[in-house]
Amino acid sequence: MYFVYAVKSQKDGRIYVGLSSNIKRRILEHNSGYVFSTKGFRPWKLIYKEEAKNRKEARKREKYFKSGSGKELLKSIPL
Questions:
Q1: What's phi and psi for 71, nearest 5 deg?
Q2: Which tens digit of pLDDT belongs to each residue from 48-75?
Q3: Rounded distance, CA 55 to CA 45, Å?
């Protein structure tokens, strides 16, 4: 089981999209500074998650959310 997730930086509002089989562990990694691309923008808050049946499907959805229209959809989620 895989998940596509989006987290938002509470420092500057940027959105990071990723995939993982363990969302709780992954968000802890983001907030602990273990992820190079996100450690300078901590803390992160989960704003979206979606379950996928396998890694291939999760990767397809991750690519969509990293695209312009997918990113705009994530920006429209009220917090």
A1: -65, -40
A2: 999 999 999 999 999 999 999 999 999 9
A3: 23
Does residue 79 have a pLDDT over 90? no
Residues 6+ apart with CB under 8 A from 52: 1, 2, 3, 4, 19, 58, 61
Domains and CATH numbers, the chain: 2-75 (3.40.1440.10)
Q: What is the DSSP string of the chain?
A: -EEEEEEEETTT--EEEEEES-HHHHHHHHHHT-STTTGGG--EEEEEEEEESSHHHHHHHHHHHHSHHHHHHHHTS--
CA separation for the pair 4, 18 (Å, rounded): 6
Give strand ranges (E) for the chain: 2-9, 15-20, 44-52
